[in-house]
Amino acid sequence: MYKSIVKEVGALALSFEEDKVCILFGPQAPQELKEVSIIHELEGNSSAEPITVGGTFQVDDEEFTITAVGSAANNNLKELGHISIYFSEPNEEVLPGAVFASPFKLPQFKDGSVIEFKG
Question: Which of 40, 98, 100, 102 has its CA 20 to 30 Å from the CA of residue 92?
Fold first, then answer.
């Protein structure tokens, strides 16, 4: 399990809606990345591998099923709060920091939104 709270929605973070991708980053993200990211902060402790295929990704009341997980996604999330979530089918090899989820629509992020990964 991994639970975090959205602290800031970057000015350009939701501009990737057409590409159906969102970028999560922890509060230590450099300013140029904050503009394009959903900035969130871990609440409590995280399990060792919170992101698993078949697990769920939830933003407030919107729930998604995780369909693919890159080899570095769990570590990147723990170390940097960073992953890229694609709301589409992977059409080639999954990038190390990528997570794919369905249904294929972006969740509605806002300051204070609760983000959860459940295995």
Answer: 40
Interval 35-86: pLDDT, tens: 999 999 999 888 889 999 999 999 999 999 999 999 999 999 999 999 999 9
- CA 54 from centroid of its chain's CA atoms: 15
Token pair for residue 3?
A: 């639970």
Give backbone dihedrals phi and psi of 110, rounded to 5 degrees, phi first.
-150, 165
How far apart (Å, rounded) are the C-alpha atoms in residues 26 and 106? 19
- Tell me the per-residue pLDDT of 2-26, one tens digit each, with 9 for 90 and over: 999 999 999 999 999 899 999 999 9
Q: What is the 3-state secondary structure (H, E, C) of the chain?
A: CEEEEEEEECCCHHHHCCCCEEEEECCCCCHHHHCCCEEEEECCCCCCCCCCCCCEEEECCEEEEEEEECCCHHHHHHHHCCEEEECCCCCCCCCCCEEEEECCCCCCCCCCCEEEEEC
